Amino acid sequence: MMAVRLLERCRSVLRQHLALCIFILFAAQPAMDILSFWQEKLGMGSSLSLLLRMLVLAATALAGYLLSERRRYYWYLAAVCAGFFVLHAAACGIAGYVSPFADLTNYVRVIQIPLFTFCFISFLRADPHAFRWIKTGFFLSFGLITVVVLLSVVTGTNPHTYADTQSGVLGWFLTTNSQASIMSMLTPILLCMAYRAKNLWILVLIAVLSCGQLYLLGTRLAYMAIFASTLGILFVTAVCGRADRRKYAVLVLVAAVSLAGFKVSPMYEHQMSYGQTMQEKQDLLNSMTADRGGTVLSGEEEQEETDLAKMRQFNQIYVYYRSDLVQRFGVEKVMENCDFSTDVSEITGARMSKIMFCSLLMDEEAFPSRLFGLERDTMVYKGEMYDPENDFHGIYYLYGFVGLVLLLAFLAYFLYLIGWALAKDARKYFTLDAGAFGLSLLLAFVNAYNTAGILRRPNASFYLSVLLAVIYYLVKIKKYPAAAKSRGIRLPELLRRKKTV
Asked: What is the pLDDT of residue 320?
């Protein structure tokens, strides 16, 4: 009885201070990133920031559990995560466990996604105002990030997105792809909220600051997110009947300026530098091939050439460009994995090299590794980390086919909710909020597919979890006005009308 009263008192206190808890969570994300940056810069290691992240995760999980009316789902999640890790650890044990604690820490970074999602769903169920506080939290994170980026530029401590060309504005943040992913997820939501404001200058300020940071970051995906966000909000507002010529002019102008500045952008500068480097390597490769008896064969001649002849001809090229992989797995396996390519971008590309390393590593291990994954420390060779730079590839190699399927099934559930809602009543569910959060979720998936900046990065995956929770809220929890429901047009009916016209 006493335990029940204590539980109810804790829940009451959490409800009363839920807004503060949400604001602290959003403020803590960039704060912990800044701490990690300065720890790394000062050579202090990452133990303090890691401990803080674990404490924040544990406190959030406890709060979500206490506020939830459906606590059994937390136990279901815990059972699935614990059961999978036991199987993963067994597979790693067969191969020879190098560092179980580090492996567990890395695993917690991944399961943070469903856990934070559950917690934010509990917050949204517990208080009808939680959604408004979450949107304010996005502004809070953005404000802190913007201040830090400006401070890094003013103080001359900006580390640059690309150290080789000294280009790009990263701010006091460690991981380029994660920061680009975070800004990509924030921008559509910020633009949507600013679009609603009566004062036009609020939209101008937010559009310039958010899209400006994406432009200055200098990654291709960040640059693409400018147009996905501005043009996406144009589409969403048009569909929702909220068109405003002056606000449209602001969004179009920001997109147009970004496009006009393409050839002076940090992204373009880096791509030109990278392309020149690849061309120089290709010229060297061609000269090495010529020294070995002629140019590279192509067409029917190449098809007729035997694998043995190819190995003899290109052996030294692979030894020169991919020495670590050749030393670890042998030149024959590396060449076969590259399909005897003489394209320098395929041979030397960092992304392809890391995927190749993990693929060859998995081939060496027992079958359970294919099901439940490899230990991350086994992906280190001569001090170089070969963890893939693509999130979905990385999940497969770290947690196997089963782990990848479990994560994809979890993410697919929220895509199903979106599809179900639009098919049931598109006019009711397709609101400004739904459009903005949908755009952010789409950009999150694009970044996860092309980089390792979200699914295994707790700073970015936090925002992904919030997006998923909000999608659930908009479809399953939010109460819509009865008038909106009665005016709704179901998607199949809308399609039939178009056909009859």
From this structure: 75
Q: Give Cα 117 distance to the centre of its chain.
A: 15
Tell me, what's the pLDDT at 209? 97
User: Which one, of 417, 414, 384, 410, lies nearest residue 395 by Cα?
Assistant: 410
Structure-token pair, residue 428: 């009711």
What is the distance between the alpha carbons of residues 113 and 457, in angstroms, rounded to a whole number?
Answer: 10
Q: DSSP labels for 275-299?
A: HHHHHHHHHHHHHHHHHTTSSPP-H
Which residues fall within 8 angstroms of residue 321, CB to CB, at 6 or more apart? 281, 285, 344, 347, 348
Q: Are 162 and 168 in contact (CB under 8 A)?
A: yes
Q: Mean pLDDT per segment of 10 residues, for the chain of length 501 residues?
A: 75 90 96 94 86 94 93 96 96 88 93 97 94 96 97 93 89 94 97 95 97 96 97 96 95 97 93 84 71 49 54 70 85 81 76 90 91 93 89 95 97 97 93 96 96 93 98 94 51 45 36
Pair 340, 289: CB distance under 8 Å: no
Cα dihedral 470→76→396→101 (10° resolution): 110
Give me the pLDDT at residue 489, please.
43
Three-state DSSP class for 457?
coil
CA distance 337 to 351: 14
List, in order, residues 6 or more apart from 44 with CB less than 8 Å away: 38
SS3 451: coil
d(CA 16, CA 10): 10
- Give the pTM: 0.90
Q: For the residues of 472-500, what is the DSSP string, one character each?
A: HIIIIIPPPPHHHHHT---HHHHHHHHHH
In the chain, % helix, strand, coil (3-state, to 5) comes to: 80, 0, 20
d(CA 190, CA 206): 7
| Residue-level pLDDT at 306 | 56
- Looking at residue 148, its pLDDT comes to 96
Q: Tokens in use for 106?
A: 């890395």
SS3 state of residue 385: strand
CA–CA dist 365, 386 (Å, integer)? 16
How far is 178 from 227, CA to CA, in rounded Å? 19
Q: Report the distance separating Cα 148 and Cα 302, nearest Å.
A: 55
pLDDT for 208: 97
